[in-house]
Structure formats: C-alpha cells, structure tokens
Write a structure and sequence with these properties.
The model has no long low-confidence stretch (mean pLDDT 97). By secondary structure, the protein is an alpha+beta fold. It has a single domain, classed as Cytidine Deaminase, domain 2, CATH 3.40.140. The chain is built from 4 helices and 5 strands, in the order αββαβαββα. The chain has helices at 6-20, 60-70, 98-108, 128-131, and strands at residues 30-38, 43-47, 76-85, 113-119, 122-127. The two termini are 27 Å apart. The structure holds tetrahydrodeoxyuridine.
C-alpha cells in the first residue's frame, strides 16, 4: 500500500490537533489527540479521557481505535498523535504508551505507521513494529 503524501500526513495531524481540544485531562493537565486512518481512508479521532479514580482513564489512541472497531473498521494504515501539557508547547513528541502499542498491535500488526507530531510541520514517524519489537499479537496465540 502506498504511503500517505506529506500533505495527507499533515491533514491527519491537524485532525489529531482538533481532537485534542476535546481531551478531558483535569488531573494530569496533559492533553492528547489522535487520528487513526483505516485502509479504506476513513479517519477516526480520539482524545484522552481522564477519570477521578485515575485507572479508568483512556488514552487518545485507544479512544480512536475503539471508536473505529466499534463501528466495524479493523484495518489501519496510519495514526497521528499530538500531546502537550495545557498551555505549553511540547519539547518532546508524544509516542503511544505501552498499553496503546499493544492495543494497536492487535489490529494493525507491525506495519502501522505512527506519526508523532509537535505540529503539522514537525513530526517523526516509526512503524509500530519499531515501537513494539517482537510484539505479541493474534499470530502468536
Ligand atoms: N496519554 C495519552 O492519551 N496517550 C499517550 O500516548 C500518552 C498518555 C494520556 C493519558 C493521561 O490522560 C495523560 O496523557 C497523561 O499521561
């Protein structure tokens, strides 16, 4: 499958930025947005949703993934992620946490392109296989 163009990646990042505005993060004050693209070109966005009991918190990536899967979409090519503390510009890109890497691996395997962005003009990309080497997935069980 052909890689997205730079403009398509930038659009995915902008959708992640928009989703980030919906984050519910009163405890960490770190807000995250994600935009997940399916193989047929649909885009599902998500934000982190925190909880006073802390452990029910859902990351932006899993929000996007679960929205897609719950609508019957299970194959993906790319995910864009943006995150920062409220009111700050992040020095670092936000990579998916370990739980999200595992959740994504279940559906995407190692080929998913993970776009970790500060802005639409400043991002790095890695495959999920690079972020989760020797990942344990459906083929392993
Ligand atoms: N978070 C995400 O939503 N995605 C990540 O990739 C990293 C962490 C959220 C979880 C929590 O609400 C806040 O960021 C601080 O960890």
């Amino acid at each position: 499958m052909a890689a997205l163009t730079r403009e398509e990646k930038q659009q995915l990042i902008r959708l992640a930025q928009e989703a980030r505005t919906h984050a519910v993060a009163p405890y960490s004050r770190f807000t995250v947005g994600a935009a997940l693209r399916s193989t047929d070109g649909q885009i599902f966005t998500g934000c982190n949703i925190e909880n006073a009991a802390f452990t029910p918190t859902n990351c932006a990536e899993r929000t996007a993934l679960f929205k897609a899967v719950s609508e019957g979409v299970t194959h993906f090519t790319d995910i864009a992620i943006v995150g920062a503390r409220i009111g700050e510009i992040n020095e670092l890109v936000t990579g998916p946490c370990g739980v999200c890497r595992q959740a994504l691996y279940e559906f995407c395997g190692p080929s998913l392109n993970v776009i970790m962005a500060k802005t639409p003009d400043d991002f790095i990309e890695r495959t999920l296989g690079e972020l989760l080497p020797f990942g344990f997935g459906p083929a392993n069980i």
